[in-house]
């Protein structure tokens, strides 16, 4: 699929990438306790006795966390294991009060699945690639060390301790930074559609460990490094590029790659060594004696499946086939669940106003949303979620264009004023006197004035220079301050110039 290669002194190198994505499960409480999980709470204000590992405390699995992980597995077409088990992963760190993490190594909740990515939105057919998912298991998060609160001591915040995570482990199927970025973005979109994770990477509720190795094309896999806790799609792509380049330089200088854990420094765009990479046996995994195996029945699985929404790929296909959108527009509108919801609300409101079917208005609505509203919001540095214009407000504006009240060029001005003031389109058109003129008398008068002022160009046009027609249209619209009905202006000009 990808022809991405790193040029070294000894020839071309291929990069091999796998991602382990840690996604915080959407739940009001933690994986094994009733403590809250709200982001941004005061340090150590969301810690139960279980999370703090007080003696005699026993974990109880949170049904909602298991349900969300199962739904996520179903959304990526993965095998759901009816029987799974929790293991203890033993290591000692100041933010891990138990001295072990409850995870799943040998019998995960979810088995193999796959995610399909499109690498070029303008060529969705020719740039599709399937990335395998090896497993999804649930585990508890550790706490957080805060090194900047005191000159000589580190503080411990246990609010995250015990928060439910899904670890989504890909196969080493990616071969370029673009593929890794597309996979992470698609996975985030799926999680947000399903509602199993909010995908807020800047808040740490989704982060990726990036496994990178290099090899000469066709040779066996090389030794991999793992760069921990990368928190944006852009940084994941940067890690792949800089780490692969570093490995090639080491190998070409006659060195060897050490299997190790690394950290990414976005300011310098480099990875640096953190510690040598442990193997599974170093963690001395064993079945957690405090927890029975998880056994899922058919009714629970059926309930999980029935609760799934329409997923991005299915929605995209429906937009193309049932609504007649271009593959590019369908891709843009389904890339994020909030965008898709906004678009569907816009189409529904526009159809209700016009008394037409949604398919009749979807194309116009999608073009307006992508080119006009996205463009205007972009200039303001805002996302769709912060738009002062609602789907209903957008539908009102589209209705004014459709019934000839305003022209397309006037609609751009109206949209700007809607974004500035938050007022409705009809109120702005009325207040500013922006209604389109369909009065043929007024249009004829404007055309006559333009033709009289440009007699030389009229002669050139009649002499065969037909490209000047656009000039006359522009001059007439300018004379009418953009309010002339473009179709009528065209008609009158054609008649007068004939």
Give a verbal description of the structure:
The chain is of the alpha+beta class and 498 residues long. It has 3 domains: 6-304, no CATH class; 310-432, no CATH class; 440-497, Arc Repressor Mutant, subunit A (Orthogonal Bundle), CATH 1.10.10.410. The chain contains 15 helices and 16 strands. It has helices at residues 63-75, 177-194, 233-252, 298-306, 312-321, 327-334, 337-354, 358-380, 391-402, 408-421, 425-432, 440-453, 455-462, 469-479, 486-497, and strands spanning 6-8, 11-24, 83-84, 87-90, 100-103, 113-118, 128-140, 144-146, 155-157, 164-170, 206-215, 225-230, 260-265, 270-276, 286-287, 294-295. A hairpin with a 4-residue loop joins strand 13 (260-265) and strand 14 (270-276). The longest helix has 23 residues, at 358-380. The chain is elongated and about 90 Å long. The protein starts with 5 loop residues before the first strand and ends with a helix. Heterotrimer of A, B and C subunits.
Helix content: 25-40%
> What general form does the structure show?
elongated
Number of beta strands: 16
Number of helices: 15
Which keywords apply here?
498 residues; alpha+beta; Arc Repressor Mutant, subunit A; nine-stranded mixed beta sheet; three-stranded antiparallel beta sheet; 15 helices; 40% helix; 18% strand; EC 6.3.5.-; ATP-binding; GatB_Yqey_C_2; GatB; nucleotide-binding
Short synopsis of the structure:
The chain has 498 residues and is an alpha+beta fold. The protein has three domains: 6-304, no CATH class; 310-432, no CATH class; 440-497, Arc Repressor Mutant, subunit A (Orthogonal Bundle). 40% of the residues lie in helices and 18% in strands.
């Amino acid at each position: 699929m990808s022809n991405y290669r790193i040029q070294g002194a000894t020839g071309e190198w291929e990069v091999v990438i796998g991602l382990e994505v840690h996604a915080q499960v959407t739940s009001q409480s933690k994986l094994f306790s009733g403590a809250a999980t709200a982001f941004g709470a005061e340090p150590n204000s969301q810690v139960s006795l279980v999370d703090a590992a007080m003696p005699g405390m026993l974990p109880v699995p949170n049904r909602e966390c298991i349900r969300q992980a199962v739904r996520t597995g179903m959304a990526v077409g993965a095998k759901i294991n009816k029987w799974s088990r929790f293991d203890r992963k033993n290591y000692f760190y100041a933010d891990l009060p138990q001295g072990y993490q409850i995870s799943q190594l040998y019998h995960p909740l979810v088995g193999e699945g796959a995610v399909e990515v499109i690498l070029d939105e303008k060529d969705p057919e020719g740039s599709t690639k399937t990335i395998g998912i090896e497993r999804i298991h649930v585990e508890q998060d550790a706490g957080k060390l805060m090194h900047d609160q005191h000159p000589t001591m580190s503080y411990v915040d246990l609010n995250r301790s015990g928060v439910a995570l899904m670890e989504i482990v890909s196969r080493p199927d990616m071969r370029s930074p673009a593929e890794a970025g597309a996979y992470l973005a698609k996975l985030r979109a799926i999680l947000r559609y399903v509602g199993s994770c909010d995908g807020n990477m800047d808040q740490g509720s989704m982060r990726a460990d990036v496994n990178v190795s290099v090899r000469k094309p066709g040779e066996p896999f090389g030794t991999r490094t793992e760069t921990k806790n990368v928190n944006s799609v852009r940084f994941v792509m940067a890690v792949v590029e800089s780490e692969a380049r570093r490995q090639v330089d080491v190998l070409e200088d006659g060195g060897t790659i050490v299997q190790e854990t690394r950290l990414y420094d976005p300011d310098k765009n480099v990875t640096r060594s953190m510690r040598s990479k442990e193997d599974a046996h170093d963690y001395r995994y064993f079945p957690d004696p405090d927890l029975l195996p998880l056994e899922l029945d058919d009714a629970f699985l059926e309930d999980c499946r029935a609760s799934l929404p329409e997923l991005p790929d299915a929605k995209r296909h429906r937009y193309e086939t049932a609504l007649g959108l271009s593959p590019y527009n369908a891709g843009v509108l389904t890339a994020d669940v909030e965008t898709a919801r906004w678009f569907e609300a816009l189409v529904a409101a526009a159809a209700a106003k016009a008394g037409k079917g949604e398919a009749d208005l979807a194309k116009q609505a999608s073009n307006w949303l992508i080119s006009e509203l996205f463009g205007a919001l972009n200039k303001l540095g805002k996302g769709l979620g912060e738009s002062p214009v609602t789907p209903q407000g957008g539908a009102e504006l589209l209705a004014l264009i459709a019934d000839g009240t305003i022209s397309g060029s006037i609609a751009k001005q109206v949209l700007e004023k809607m974004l500035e003031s938050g007022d409705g389109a009809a109120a702005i058109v009325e207040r500013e006197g922006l209604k389109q003129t369909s009065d043929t008398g007024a249009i004829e008068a404007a055309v006559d004035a333009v033709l009289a002022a440009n007699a030389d160009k009229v002669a050139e046009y009649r002499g065969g220079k037909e490209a000047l027609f656009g000039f006359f249209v522009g001059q007439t619209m300018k004379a009418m301050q953009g309010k002339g009905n473009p179709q009528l202006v065209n008609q009158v000009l054609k008649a007068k110039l004939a």
